[in-house]
Structure formats: structure tokens, C-alpha cells
Amino acid sequence: HKLYEQLKLSDLGIGKFNKNLLYLPGICFDIEFDEFARVYRNEGCNFLVYPAAFPIYTGELHWELYQRARAADTQSYVTMVSASRDYTNPFVNWGYTTLVDPWARVIKKAGEDEEIIKADLDFSLADSAREQLPVFRKRRTDMYEVVAKHRTAGDVKEDNVTYVMGKIRAAVADEKRTSVPILVVLPELFNSPYGPQFFDKYAELIPDGYTSKALSAIAKELGIYIIGGSYPERDPQNPKTLYNTCTVWGPKGELLAKHRKVHLYDIEVPNKVTFKESTAMTPGKNYTIVEIGPAKIGIGE
């Protein structure tokens, strides 16, 4: 199957888990595609993570709706991580970082202002949901095709990255260190203002750019795993080609995975909102799966 030919696997080998943590990161607009999430569910993922930047118009309509829908579809934990609102920015984020459980219940939710939310996840809940309500076992694949065949960045990149590094330190400062890994997830495009007109200015090479080096350094300093939201990546072979790229970093500062956003966000609602990510970015072509010991992480944006 063509989709599976594009899966990228990395064996990272960390920590011990009592239950499998199988984790999918996606980026923003990816959450609107149920078949995209279903591919990872078929691969065994039970945690879907989407760094995201929704405008207020679609955020009010769809933010919680899509998270609960994907949780119900896949019987997985789902989170969307947003920057907070900044009404002085041309693109005003919805905010409201949210965490939904495998029964599609909202268990944590931030407001529109800056906020760090924390939760301990019991992945046996995904196991029990799938056993008690066997959605995937009940699918009639004989009748239809199987799909699987909170702060807004400012103008200075260095200031944006420094600010985020401080928030990462604050988020893990009081965490007790155990054999269970600590994972920090950042918002989409956290190192630049959000808009096609900005992406070229803030783009960098990965892993040699400023943002990548900062993420690598703090992951190593704190001994944690980081899903680095996303930031504009410049293609090393063609400098005019840009991607919206999510990076994953390990506790030794190593780059574990790189995922280029597959579904670019284009919307045009007259007199409401117009945004064309595709005017500046090129879509990625691959699914990305990262294996962390028994944890299996699917990357999306």
C-alpha cells in the first residue's frame, strides 16, 4: 500500500512502560482528516498530539469538536497545543490548549491566555475503551475501502526561542524524576509570527539552525523528550522551498525524528478569514513514526 510505503520508523529505545504508549504527533490542519489519524490507529498509536494554530473563527467552531471526534474515531488520547492569543498579531490564535481522553471526554483545558497544563495519562483507559466498544473490530471493510491500504511569537526569533526555553524549564521544574520519561509538546510555529509573509524570514536548516540547536541543548540539559511544535524549515537542496516542520528531540539532545506537515492550511471565508499556507510552504510527503521502547509515536502536523 502506498501509504505504508511512506511510513518512517525510528527505534529510540527509552524507559520502561507498564502499558504501551503509542503516540502520534500531527500538525494543526491534520486533525481535520480522520483517515490520517486512522492510519496511525491501525499502527497501534494511542496518543495523538497536534501542535496547532487555529484562527478565532474556526477555533470557536472546530477546536474542541475535532479533538473529541478524533478521540472517538481512534479511541486514543488527543491533545491540540496552541499559542495564546495576541490581538496585536496579524494572526490571532484561538488558544485553549486541550487534552481529551479515549472516551472523548475533555480532561484538561487551558484558557486563551498563557497557561501550562499537566496531566498523568493512564493508557490502560485506551485499552479498555477499545475492548468495551470495539469500533475497529466492527468496521465493515468488506463494504468500503480501508483507509490504511499560548503566547504568539513576536518579531525576533531569538527572543521567541529564549522565551519558550524558559517555559520548558518552568514546566518541568517541579516534576519528580522516575523511570517514566517526561515529554514536553510545543505549539505550531512557535519561533515566528504566524503568516505566509513571515515564513521565509524565519526559516532555517534542521538540525543546524538556531531553533534546532536550542531545542537540542535544552532537551539534553533537562534530560527530557521534546516534540518541538513546528517551525519553518528551509530545504538544504533548494533554499526557496520551505516546509512547516515538527522535530522530536531525545534526552541526549539527539534529533529523533523530523516531520514535514502534510496537509497545508488554506481557508477563505468571505469577510471572516483568509489564510493560504500553501502560498509559502511545500507539503511533506511522508508519515513519520517514532518508536520509544514500547511507545510508538506517529508524527503529524
Please give a structural write-up:
- The chain is an alpha/beta fold.
- It has 2 domains: 22-137, Carbon-nitrogen hydrolase (Nitrilase/N-carbamoyl-D-aminoacid amidohydrolase, 4-Layer Sandwich), CATH 3.60.110.10; 157-299, 4-Layer Sandwich (Nitrilase/N-carbamoyl-D-aminoacid amidohydrolase), CATH 3.60.110.
- 26% of the residues lie in helices and 23% in strands.
- The strands form 4 sheets. Strands 2-3-4-5-6 form a 5-stranded mixed β-sheet, with helices on one face. Strands 7, 8, 9, 10 and 11 form a 5-stranded mixed β-sheet that branches.
- Strand 5 and strand 6 form a beta hairpin.
- Helix 2 (34-42) packs parallel to helix 3 and helix 5 (157-172) runs parallel beside helix 7.
- The longest helix is centred in the first third of the chain and has 19 residues, at 56-74.
- 45% of the residues are buried.
- The model is unreliable at 1-19 and 145-149 (pLDDT under 50).
Question: What are its keywords?
Answer:
single chain; 301 residues; alpha/beta; Nitrilase/N-carbamoyl-D-aminoacid amidohydrolase; 15 strands; disordered N terminus
Structure classification: alpha/beta
Shape: globular
Could you say how many structural domains there are in total? 2
Q: Summarize the main sheet.
A: 5 strands, mixed
Instruction: Report low-confidence residues grouped into runs of 5 or more.
Output: 1-19, 145-149
Helices and strands, in N-to-C order? HEEHEHEEEHHEHHEEEEEEEE
Strand order of the largest sheet: 2-3-4-5-6
- Helical stretch tally: 7
Rg, nearest Å: 18 Å
How far apart are the termini?
Answer: 22 Å
Helix content: 25-40%
* Share of β-strand residues: 15-25%
CATH superfamily of the largest domain, please? Carbon-nitrogen hydrolase
